[in-house]
Amino acid sequence: MRYVSCRDEQGSVADESACFHLPKPSATEMCTVTPCGQWKALEWSSCSVTCGQGKATRQVICIDYSDQLVDRSECDPDDLPATEQDCSMSPCHPNSHDYGRPIHPFLYPDHRLKLHPGGSPNRNRAHIPGGNQWRIGPWGACSSTCAGGFQRRVVVCQDENGYTANNCDEKTKPMEQRSCESGPCPQWAYGNWGECTKPCGAGTRTRLVVCQRPNGERFTDLSCEILDKPPDREQCNVQDCPRDAAWSAGPWSSCSVSCGRGQRHRTVYCLTKEGRHVEEDYCKHLVKPNVQKKCRGGRCPKWKSGDWGQCSVSCGRGVQRRAVQCHGGAPTAACDPASQPAAQRDCQLPLCPTHHWATGEWQQCMKTCGEAARYRKVFCVDESKQVQSSTHCDASKRPPEMESCGLPPCEYIWITGEWSECSVTCGKGYRQRLVSCSEIYTGKDHYEYGYQNTVSCPGTQPPNIQPCYLGECPVSASWRVSNWGSCSVTCGVGIMHRSVQCLTNDDQLSNLCHVDLKPEERRTCHNVHDCELPRSCSDVKNLKGVTEDSEYFLKVKGKTLKVYCSGMQTDSPKEYVTLVNGDAENFSEVYGYRLHNPTECPYNGSRREDCQCRKDYTAAGFSTFSKVRLDLNTMQIITTDLQFARTHDGRPVPYATAGDCYSAAKCPQVFDKGIPPSPPLSALRSGTL
């Protein structure tokens, strides 16, 4: 949560109606607290072996403070307890003469003696005269899981045959009990108290209480239940709240600066109705007035400088000057002399020239009216008036070589030529003539065709084209078509129609048009937007009722494809892909010529029919393709479907197949466009869409 209030320009709280024209920011938002997890280790499993060295394992899970199972990512992987440890059982001695004899029934249920590791049976028994000996079992588990305990084992007296005896030496009897240390017991640990929920009137505060060992290893609360758990929640600030406590603000201080932007400050107290100072917590439910605000102490004086003037010289080294003055501030205030900008600086212009430009006389204008120009010669001369190279003079100061004559505007007139012959020999046509806007030249008694802008001539431009009629032409007719109508469906595959009529040149119906040249009156149309497309040609036929072989849009593998449906009049239409370049660049070939000498490489691998060859390869053929069959389930081309293939020579060749028996040598081979490279004897390539 956060506090949202309407403030005025000074930062003080204003009525919300003053901010009604602005969107109010949100005062609350959702937040997610990630639970803290801790590792919990379950009991160790039995040893993986019954004798010798083995492994014991245990499961480690991640739980929260409520002992609920959570995701392992909530626990620290660096604190993960071990899940595997070594374990030692009685030694295994399959070759010992004692193995398999009956022993004390309380040691092992199967009455077999298990030896400790080491290989010698003497380690499991204490020899005494007469053949009797002490036999020992493995140590049991520690009696306590923490703070120390004891372990016990079975010690029995047996004779040399492994049967129980009574006369073993008590002085050599191994110990039956020993102490064991399992580490310190977990205890309750607690953190610091949090903040009180209320400043007065009995609030609550909480702290974290966990069961853990001194090294920080945590356990469930059950592991510490023998101890009294410290409280994790208590009351706080139980004193009564003072009534009618409110903020009280003192007067604003003077501005912190004498000029420019500064700050004003004031003291804000929390007071009771009686005017007694109390802690600010008693007023924190109210909006605290600002303790500072911005202020301006007047305009500070500052230096202002004007633009730099021109250099004091026209060439060489000179001086530039500008005005610098102190503006603003109180009458007694002054600008800092240390920050005063410079009022003068040096300037360096190009070196003074020793050469200059000279000009000749202007020539006469070539025209007496309109736009025209006159010219003169420009020279670069030295101090002796001798002509020098132009590179010695300043190019930026070169005088102009051309200027406008400033003549009065010319007069223009329309000039027309003779009409041409009619554009047709019968019926309605047109004829044309040359129309030009020509300038009237002074001193000339005739006009010339020119290329001036037609806007210069007065009045409307005379026509340059007019109709002509040379009598009716013999009756002829042609097919006329209207625009295509709208599609019969709003989505999927439909039909659209147009009108096709045979009309004479005077728009009369006729039957003189050639039937083979009649344009189509209907065609299929495809609207693929906002429509569930069929997934096969069978769907097009069954769902749309279409029986015409044509291109249709299908939804295949989640994508929209344009597919040609063939056999729409049958029960099993087939899908084909129309090849963009048709059979011009889509062909398959098995070359039929074979060299008489298959070990040579004539013509650098080029195929030529005038080679020393024979054409007797029975599998040869050449086929071109305009469409290929598509398997919608595997998205592969069915190369053996030849419905839209033409075989031009030999046997039909499947799509994407090429081969030859031209030469058995490793020759560089050159193939025509469209044939993939192949090994010398044969090749086969299959296509996948």
Automatic annotation (TrEMBL):
PANTHER family, A to Z: A DISINTEGRIN AND METALLOPROTEINASE WITH THROMBOSPONDIN MOTIFS 9 (PTHR13723:SF33), ADAMTS A DISINTEGRIN AND METALLOPROTEASE WITH THROMBOSPONDIN MOTIFS PROTEASE (PTHR13723)
Instruction: Report the locations given in the UniProt record.
Output: Secreted
Instruction: Give the GO biological process terms.
Output: extracellular matrix organization; proteolysis
Q: Which domain of life is it from?
A: Eukaryota
A GO CC term attached to the entry: extracellular region
Ranges of residues in domain GON: 533-689
Record protein name field: ADAM metallopeptidase with thrombospondin type 1 motif 9
Q: Which UniProt keywords apply?
A: Metal-binding, Repeat, Secreted, Signal, Zymogen
Q: Which GO terms describe its molecular function?
A: metalloendopeptidase activity; zinc ion binding
